[in-house]
What we know:
This protein is an alpha+beta fold. It has a domain at about 10-155: Aspartate Aminotransferase, domain 1. The protein has helices at about 10-15, 15-30, 85-90, 95-105, 125-135, 135-150, 150-170, 180-195; strands at about 40-45, 45-50, 70-75, 80-85, 115. The longest helix has 20 residues, at about 150-170. The relative contact order is 0.10. The mean pLDDT is about 80.
Amino acid sequence: MQSAATTVAAYLKSLPDDRRKALQAIREVVSDNLDPKIEEAMAYGMPGWVVPLSVYPDGYHCAKDTPLPFASLASQKNHMALYLFCVYSVPGEAERLAKEWKAAGKKLDMGKSCLRFKKLEDVPLEVIGKAVKRMTLKKFIAGYEEALAGTSAGRKKAAAKKGAAKKKAARKPAVRKKPAAKKAAARKVAKKASKKAPARAKKAPARKNASRKAPARKKTTR
């Protein structure tokens, strides 16, 4: 059941007291164990959490330019529900959650994409917290893309990416290579220039200081 509320606070405020308390308790557990890059938001008329486009620009394959949904909460006509898209997207995680839920001694009412409950006491909050904490952003996106790859939407997405990459490569100007003949001529010119360069003048040999002998005095005869 979608709501016209534009904020999570407004959505919760519109609920009966018991349902507001139940969804608020689950909201706190999810938020406390959430990957910091995932944000809370209103999506599809429900409070939830999404991977913003600034983090994952590809977004949700079902709706163009829409952030990838991670989880949602809802107050339906006959029950409340927690939609853990993050768990259902990764192989083995839904089975693990079901096993832990039952081990906590709680009755599990699990649909194809949600966990249904009528009161907060039906929900093992610690199990929800562990499931969300295990689902890091990297693990979630990897599981989502792996699941998507086998679908027609996934194949279209891959083809679009490939086409965009080809266009980008075509726009890049080709780097011109110098012909081998030009390279050889350039080397010859450089070699001739190095030969013409004047050699350094040799140092003149140091002058030897010749010791001059004083002429011998002639003896005079008296």
